[in-house]
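Structure in, sequence out. Go:
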């Protein structure tokens, strides 16, 4: 007649891929920061369809950092997809003490970024998207400057990632 209720899952058997109300989400090893959120539109026969584009930077503050971009029907979906994309595109940099090993510059689209090492205790002197990327990478002492002709956070963040990729050991 009646089926017996399933046994509650043991902690080792939890599958975090499928989340239900009341279940606890596991703590991620990465810190994340939503850099940019935009509403984008697509014009169709019946009018306009709105979606959201999220730009997310993730990092473990130990040398791994990534930028992800994704679109979704709502803000939460866009952010979640962007986090997954950022994890796929992680880069690893080697830090010399608490700073970058040498000066690097990079260009992405109209954005150009210069990252310079600094002495211990100097702090991170950088602005906007570059600062977020360097902080989440674990750089504590450095100087960075956006010298491109754009204020777009997305392109500045991607230029910062290109600069970090150029770092040699």
């Amino acid at each position: 007649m009646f089926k017996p209720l399933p046994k509650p899952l043991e902690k080792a058997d939890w599958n975090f891929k499928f989340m239900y109300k009341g279940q606890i989400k596991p703590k991620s090893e990465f810190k994340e920061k939503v850099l940019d959120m935009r509403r984008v539109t697509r014009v169709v026969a019946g009018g306009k369809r709105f979606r959201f584009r999220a730009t997310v930077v993730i990092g473990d503050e130990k040398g791994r950092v990534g930028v992800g971009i994704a679109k979704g029907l709502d803000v939460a979906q866009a952010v979640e997809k962007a986090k997954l994309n950022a994890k796929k595109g992680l880069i690893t940099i080697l830090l010399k003490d608490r700073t970058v090993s040498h000066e690097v510059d990079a260009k992405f689209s109209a954005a150009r970024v210069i990252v310079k090492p600094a002495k211990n205790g100097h702090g991170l002197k950088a602005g906007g998207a570059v600062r977020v990327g360097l902080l989440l990478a674990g750089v504590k002492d450095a100087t960075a400057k956006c010298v491109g002709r754009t204020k777009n956070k997305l392109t500045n963040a991607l230029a910062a990632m290109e600069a970090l990729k150029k770092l040699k050991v």
